[in-house]
Amino acid sequence: MSELSQTQAPAPRSLLADTGASITEDNIHRLVHGFYDEVRADALLGPVFGREIAPEAWPVHLAKMCDFWSSVLLRTARYDGRPLPPHLRMPDLSDTHFARWLTLFRATADAVFAPADANRVIALAERIGTSFRLSIALHRGEDTMKVGPLPRG
User: Fold this and answer.
1) pLDDT tens sequence across 52-65
2) Do 22 and 117 form a contact (C-beta atoms < 8 A)?
3) N or C: which terminal CB in the chain sees fewer CB atoms within 10 Å?
4) In contact, 64 and 79? CB cutoff 8 Å
């Protein structure tokens, strides 16, 4: 019997296990706040977020998004919520919105993180976006087979 088979199987590794010091709470804060600064100023996304999040609610939303990304990237388990339902309630949310969201997110992640970590963070955001788009299509009774990855912008 091999030495590996005699030992316990290794624990599953996080996608971000070997990222070094680039993914930190400070950089997650910079990602979230920088990204949402861009979103709020964006001609396409700004009005949507302005409609959905009252000006006085932004500090709470930003803190919640920092908790979300900390939970996803660092496995802190700080986020305790359900991010999909608010998106399901927006009848005008489209692939155009998600494509713009990802474009802004990619640019912010590239500016905040080292290249390898930025790629990992972006890959997670792309998967989350695809998952949301699939869920929205299903919720609307649309053909989910037509939902694929969005092209990089």
Assistant:
1) 999 999 999 999 99
2) yes
3) N
4) yes
